[in-house]
Write a structure and sequence with these properties.
This protein is mainly alpha-helical and 69 residues long. α2 links the parallel β1 and β2. The two termini are 23 Å apart.
Length: 69
């Protein structure tokens, strides 16, 4: 939805800043597999998915991707 609405409003994407992340609310050793999977999904998979979806517009505009980790 983010990509679609951005393109509908401005017609292009020049910059994508990936800055989403969730911390663990416990020590890694104490984290459940579910906690680690949720963290991975947000911190890694969402970056890949959003970048992939924005890529056609970024290529067309010769835009850039900035990922904060």
């Amino acid at each position: 939805r983010l990509i679609d609405e951005t393109l509908a409003r401005w017609g292009r994407i020049d910059v994508l800043v990936n800055n989403a992340g969730v911390p663990l609310d416990t020590f890694f050793a104490d984290a459940s597999l579910e906690d680690l999977q949720r963290q991975w999904a947000t911190n890694t998979t969402s970056v890949i998915e959003l970048t992939k979806r924005a890529l056609p517009s970024l290529i067309a505009s010769r835009g850039v991707v900035i990922t904060v980790s």
